[in-house]
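thread from #wetlab-drylab

HS: before we spend reagent money on co-crystallization trials with adenosine-5'-diphosphate, can we at least see a predicted complex? here's what I'd submit
DV: go for it
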Amino acid sequence: MLSAINLHKTYRKHAVQVPVLRGLDLHVDPGEFLSIVGQSGSGKSTLLHLLGTLDRPDQGEIHLDLARIDNLPAGARDRLRNATFGYIFQFYHLLPELSTLENVLIPQMIGHSILGWMVKARGLRRRAEELLERVGLKHRIKHKPRELSGGEMQRAAIARALVNHPRILLADEPTGNLDEDTGREIVGLLHSLNRSEGLTIIMVTHNRDLAMETDRIVRLTAGRVEDPPELAPTPSISPACT
Ligand code: ADP
Ligand code: MG
């Protein structure tokens, strides 16, 4: 469904060039829960930004359902992005002055004129409330982010990412700021969304155990995808074969 073909990306600052992606290929199937691992600085966030059309590759192509999406004009790209991708990050990025419910509604507010918003506000609000219930935050709807735990803030961020019905969730170290048990709960929630809604998920993580539970692990090395033999789930060997 989502394919990256021969992606190259180099950051340039003053005279310094930092080549990050060097001919990366990746194909993601619909409904897949994929993890991306690799050393710090290996280009994991860069890859998510390119896949989610937040940035453009220097060379190479990104295809969604066989249509090229990396070279769309800005307006079409923004519409495609809002309709297709949801994002969650390590540091949640909730707006501190808004309640949990209002934070979840932000992507919807941005997509509507004031009049359009007034007409549809009730239905959209209901959708946001349903999502907050889905992520286990119904009792925190009116709370401000500072009144939430880290795990609760990430749940709110997940609800916000889902409010526009994305097909693909891009998660950049979503458990990086959480304790082990809470991180496990958050990834458990992602698994349940993946199974029940068929949501495609691409998750960058440093947590080997959490990566092992996903459908597939890809490791970034030297700007490309490497086979990760030491991380790949080993086929179970029955005692009769040993
Ligand atoms: P990862 O997420 O795997 O830690 P990143 O994709 O964030 O890696 O970054 C890859 C490399 O690119 C790093 O060396 C980083 O310093 C550099 N980099 C990332 N973003 C920028 C930018 N906007 N400008 C310049 N260099 C950047
Ligand atoms: Mg990163």
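DV: The pocket of magnesium ion (ligand 2) is lined by residues 44-45, 172 (CB under 6 Å).
HS: ok that's useful, forwarding to the group
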